[in-house]
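Module 6 notes. Inverse folding takes a fixed backbone as the condition and produces residue identities as the prediction. Think of it as a translation problem where the source language is geometry and the target language is the twenty amino acids. Below is one complete input and output pair. Work through it position by position during the lab.
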């Protein structure tokens, strides 16, 4: 048996798929190969909103799983919609890496050093809102493209502008904000000039975490041979799972689900386990940075159900604090 991992062709996707492939092969003892899946979001360069949102990146991989064109898909968890995918299971969330957002600025500048009116690029309403709340004098510019293309818009940061996507835009910004996790995975933490602590900028729910998805029939707990023993893939997937990461991202995604928030809603959430408690912090911001609702709560229910309930409780506190009035929670792109 060769296990086929479906992957997008971007540098970040290939890197994280290859890492998962190496780990699966090591613990499973079976051969693993990468299968490239082209997604609509990779092929077309137009507005993501016209393609049905960031979910287009995920949908093609899920179709490939359901069509038996691959056995495993590795997603950035923060790109996964919260709704269920029938027939598929998130079999593992490996131990999460750095959850923070990172400023990548010209000349080594930190947020406090940027001059008034400095142009800071981000495609994320969540980052834009928290940037504006911290520094209302900045000019936040909407950008998209892969990590290289984004970095290439800051003078002195070696990036590779995709000219089809953003013609003539090389070096036009003072800084961009990216997830530390993505930079870490592709070995580009050298461009970071400041890591934002979570009191300045709460990350996207699931940021820094991967979701390893498979057909439910192959998932740990469901897959079995006639004698009831789990199959080799299910066992290997179970070995890649980190339960503290699973609890944290379950709580974070539960906030999004209870808020019925779209993928472009300005919502941040971060959960972490400390001892016998699971802590969750979440924020909803007006995109112009003028208003913020923030809540924090903990539970000693260290189970999937406990984490989900914690997310619901925090979401309801946010709603009671006026979250739906300050932000368009349904916003999608
Ligand atoms: N939306 C794009 C995306 N999806 C996952 C990551 C990397 C971070 C992660 O794995 O959480 C990124 C890039 C970014 O936000 O800078």
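Target side of the pair, the amino acids:
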């Amino acid at each position: 048996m060769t296990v086929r991992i479906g992957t997008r062709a971007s540098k970040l996707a290939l890197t994280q798929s290859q890492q998962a492939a190496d780990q699966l092969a090591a613990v499973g003892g079976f051969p693993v190969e990468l299968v490239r899946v082209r997604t609509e979001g990779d092929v077309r360069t137009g507005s993501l909103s016209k393609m049905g949102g960031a979910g287009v990146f995920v949908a093609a991989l899920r179709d490939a799983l359901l069509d038996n064109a691959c056995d495993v898909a590795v997603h950035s968890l923060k790109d996964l919609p919260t709704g269920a995918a029938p027939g598929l299971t998130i079999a593992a969330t490996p131990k999460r890496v750095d959850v923070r957002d990172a400023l990548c600025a010209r000349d080594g500048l930190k947020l406090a050093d940027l001059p008034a009116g400095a142009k800071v690029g981000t495609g994320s309403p969540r980052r834009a809102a928290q940037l504006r709340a911290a520094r209302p004098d900045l000019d936040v510019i909407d950008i998209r493209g892969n990590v290289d293309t984004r970095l290439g818009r800051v003078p002195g940061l070696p990036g590779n502008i995709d000219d089809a996507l953003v013609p003539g835009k090389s070096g036009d910004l003072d800084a961009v904000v990216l997830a530390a996790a993505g930079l870490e995975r592709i070995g580009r933490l050298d461009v970071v000039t400041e890591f934002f602590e979570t009191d300045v900028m709460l990350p996207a729910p699931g940021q820094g975490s991967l979701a390893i998805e498979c057909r439910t029939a192959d998932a740990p707990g469901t897959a079995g041979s006639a004698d009831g023993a789990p199959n080799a893939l299910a066992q290997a997937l179970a070995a890649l799972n980190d339960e503290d990461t699973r609890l944290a991202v379950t709580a974070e995604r539960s906030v999004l689900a209870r808020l019925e928030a779209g993928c472009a809603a300005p919502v941040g959430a971060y959960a972490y386990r400390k001892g016998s408690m699971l802590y969750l912090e979440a924020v909803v911001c007006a995109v112009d940075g003028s208003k913020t609702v923030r809540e924090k709560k903990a539970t000693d229910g260290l189970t999937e159900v406990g984490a989900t309930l914690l997310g619901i409780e925090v979401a309801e506190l946010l709603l009671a604090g006026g979250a739906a009035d300050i932000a368009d929670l349904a916003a999608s792109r």
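Reference fact for the lab report: The chain has three domains: 3-94+209-241, 101-195, 247-326.
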